[in-house]
Structures are given as structure tokens and as C-alpha cells.
Amino acid sequence: MRAIVYSETGPSSVLRLVERPEPTAGPGEVVVRVVRSGVNPTDWKHRAGTGLSTPGGEVGPGHDGAGVVEAVGPGVDHVGTGDRVWLLLAGTGPVHGTAAELTVQPANRVVPLPDGASFDLGAALGVPFITAHRSLTSGTVPRLAAGALAGQTVLVAGGAGAVGNAAIQLARWAGATVITTVSSAEKAALARAAGAHHVVNYREGDPAAEILAAAPAGVDLIAEVAPAANIALDLAVAGNHGTVAIYAENGGNEVMLPAQAAMGKNLRFAFAVLYTLDEALVQAAVEDLTAALADDALRVGEAAGLPLHHYNLANTADAHDAVERGTIGKVLLDLG
Q1: Which SMART domains does this UniProt record tie to the protein (predicted)?
Q2: End-to-end CA, the chain
Q3: Contact (Cβ atoms closer than 8 angstroms) between residue 55 and residue 9
Q4: How far apart are CA 244 and CA 220, in angstroms?
Q5: pLDDT digits (tens, 9 = 90+) for 266-276
Q6: What angle do CA 326, 159, 271 make, to 5 degrees?
Q7: 89: closest CA among 24, 136, 157, 42?
Q8: What are the beta bridge partners of residue 243?
């Protein structure tokens, strides 16, 4: 089979297209023939060695993907040969992630994909949607369902990003009023397409005033991508007993927090990273995403505010570069 690998960290040129033996399914494992592989910022960051040591052996990138079950090992009963599935956290254990024609994964990393959901959608779910789910359940609601956030207002910082898009879609499905911030008219159009009720260009006018006009009592939860840059805005618009859920550190790693202002509103600050998330929380997200898929509440593509950019496997380096330079939308590898 063909697979993308690297043996040292560095620029995208360290990625190599190689031939490797086809994997087999051991106990509790599933072999999936990958049709689409999702590329996320974490893929190029891990490959570049950001915050990581040089790999001790060959690494196959790719956490997210979708495809068809090729084989199942003993003890696997939730999927069978020929089933359509999506993959999550596929690059955290085995040698090969989803940037390969075949990948073998633990059963809990393989999830049935409804017939009405495209492989493009399946490959876009993992990192962005599970991260968004964890952000949205860091407040008063431990699980998401249709109507679970009814009566609440959610502010999504950076609504045109992949996680921001996912947070808008999930919060809208859960019944929240969704406000999002963007930096351009192009991104505003994408955020509206994703389903945001109110879109605020933070580079124009008074963003805090615009947000509070839509949520006079303040917002209940903020899904925050850039806490260092946005902390003053977050404190200004958060409601009493609100939650600021931080899942990234865009724009700076250190946050100066005015403690008295935060205490005055009884705010809760929650932090999340997918790769050390408790397995019970990962599986809760999978279950809720499955319910949202059944409700046909999740979408990808231009009409959903998430333009798709397709690359073939041989051009994985170009796909990594596209994500690294901040291409708007979802970057996918086509394998079938």
C-alpha cells in the first residue's frame, strides 16, 4: 500500500510517499481503506517538531479520515467488513495514521458513518468537531443534544476556522443563540453560512457593544481560539457565571488575566486539548456527533461555511503547507 511517512521533523519536504506492507487486524482492531484523510494544524505542527522531540522511528501522519472497513479483528462487533466509517485520533498510536491507503486502528477510533454523510464530512469530523464539542460542554451542559443549549448564548471566536465552524454548527443544533467574531467580510459570509445568528467583525466599530446588543445579559459560553488577544473582550461580554473555554493559543501563549474582573462575574475558565482528553469525554463527543449526524445537522462545503480543498496523496506536502499558511476551509487528501 502507499503511505506518507516521515522519520525526522522539519518542513513539509521531510514527508515521503512510500510503499509499505498492508496491515492486518489484531484483537480489538479494524483495518480501514481510507477514502479521505483530513489535514489539521496539528499535523504540520507535529511534523515540524513544534514542542515535540525528534521521532525515534517512522511516523505516518493523519488523525482524521473516512473510508470503508477492510477487515475486523476478534472482539470487534460495532462495525463489519464493507461498512462506511470515520476515524478519530488515528495518528496517536499506530505507525500509520490516515495519510495511507490502509490504516489499522483500535476499535474505539472507528465510528460508523451514516449513508447520508459523505466521506468528505466524515474526514472533517475528528479534531475540529470533538474539540468544539469539548468547548461547548465545558460550561453548564455536560452533553450535547438537540435543544440542550436552548436559552443560552454562545460566542465563537474565529467562526470561519474549522473548529469555529464546528462550534457554530453544534451550538446551533443544540439550540443556542450563536454569535461569532471574524476579521473580514469573506469570513463573515462563511460564518453566516455555518449558521451563526450574529456575526461581528472585530476589526470594525466596537465589538463588545455589538455582542452585548445581541446578548444584553452577556454570553453564557465563549469558545476561545486566541485568549491572549481576546481576554479583554471576553471579560467585557461574558455574563455572570459564564464560561470561557480555551482550546488554542493563537496570537500568544501567555494570558494576563485581571482576576478581580473575572471574579466579579464568577467566571469559569476551562482549557482543552484533544490528545490528552479523558477517553470517556472523547466517547461522549462521538456519541453526540453521531446523534447530530442522524439529525442531518452537520455539513461541510462552501454552503456550510467550510470550503473544501482536495489534494492527492502524492501532494500531501502541499496540503500541509496549505494548512500551515492558514487556508480557509478544510484540507482533505483524496485516496479513493
Answers
A1: PKS_ER (SM00829)
A2: 13
A3: yes
A4: 9
A5: 999 999 999 89
A6: 90
A7: 42
A8: 221, 268
Question: Which residues 6+ apart lie within 8 Å of 234 measured at CB?
Answer: 222, 224, 227, 244
Cα 226 to Cα 2, 108, 287: the distances in Å are 37, 31, 28
Pair 173, 297: CB distance under 8 Å: yes
**High-pLDDT (> 90) share of the chain, %:** 92
What does pTM read for this prediction? Answer: 0.96
Question: How far is residue 298's CA from residue 113's CA, in Å, rounded to a whole number?
Answer: 12
Domain extents in the chain: 2-128+278-334, 139-271
Burial class (CB in 10 A: 0-12, 13-18, 19+), 50: exposed
**Looking at this protein, which amino acid is placed at residue 127?**
V
CA distance 279 to 256: 31
What CATH class is the domain 2-128+278-334? alpha beta
The answer to whether 2-128+278-334 and 139-271 have equal CATH topology is yes
Q: Where is 187: in which H helix or E strand?
A: helix 185-194
